[in-house]
Design goal:
Shape: globular
Oligomer: single chain
Radius of gyration: 18 Å
Structural class: alpha+beta
Number of domains: 2
Distance between the termini: 58 Å
Largest sheet: 5 strands, mixed
Number of helices: 4
Order of helices and strands: EHEEHHEEEEEEEEH
CATH architecture of the largest domain: Beta Barrel
Strand content: 25-35%
Length: 204
């Protein structure tokens, strides 16, 4: 160890919690989502789920257990779509029950969508009017201190959503780029309450 450096000791175990995969514009998105979740099985063995879309409707399937046991060919066949999001769960909040398996489908007046906990943040400076011109695209790892906190509830309008924040004191006092910002604990609670048929309205 060189002078002035600090040695950081880390436990000899996985640090990841939950696995998320998304497929865009592929004729067998459900199959790729399944394979992606299978590769991410080490990140969560409690439950798994996939939501697919053919551009007209969503199809969802989730269950307790391992990916290979849940998504048999008979289950995947009727889920054919060109878009898919999948999640394998390692519980950090909530009970170990099918109720908390993800993705979660949400019905709103902005459209039907699906969400998952612990999302990474894909930063695209082209979407932010106040971004520094020198910024480049980047992916920020998931976690409570990430820009969108522990939950992202996606709305059908591109890049709009309801999410957590690493700065709870800023809620209600800072501007947003079109999203609704909640504390992490409120976002987690909301994500556990919404179900298919839940309506979301923005009131001025």
């Amino acid at each position: 160890m060189h002078s002035g450096e600090e040695q950081i000791m880390t436990p000899d175990k996985f640090h990841d919690e939950c696995g998320v995969v998304a497929i865009y514009s592929h004729p067998e998105a459900e199959t790729l989502a399944y394979l992606g979740l299978h590769a991410l099985q080490h990140r969560g063995q409690e439950s798994a789920g996939i939501v697919t879309s053919n551009g007209m409707q969503l199809r969802a399937h989730k269950a307790m257990g391992l990916v290979a046991d849940i998504f048999t060919p008979d289950v995947l066949a009727p889920m054919r779509g060109t878009l898919a999001i999948g999640h394998t769960r390692y519980s950090t909040a909530g009970d170990s029950a099918l109720l908390n398996a993800q993705p979660i489908m949400v019905q709103s007046n902005k459209g039907v969508t699906a969400v998952a906990h612990n999302p990474p943040f894909n930063y695209n400076p082209g979407l932010f009017w106040d971004a520094d011109p020198s910024h480049r695209k980047a992916t920020i790892p998931p976690g409570p201190n990430g820009p969108v906190g522990l939950v992202w509830i996606d709305l059908s309008k591109p890049h709009y959503g309801i999410h957590g924040t690493p700065e709870p004191g800023s809620v209600g006092y800072t501007t947003s780029h079109g999203c609704v910002r909640l504390t992490n604990w409120d976002a987690l609670r909301l994500a556990g309450m919404v179900r298919s048929g839940t309506k979301v309205e923005f009131v001025p």
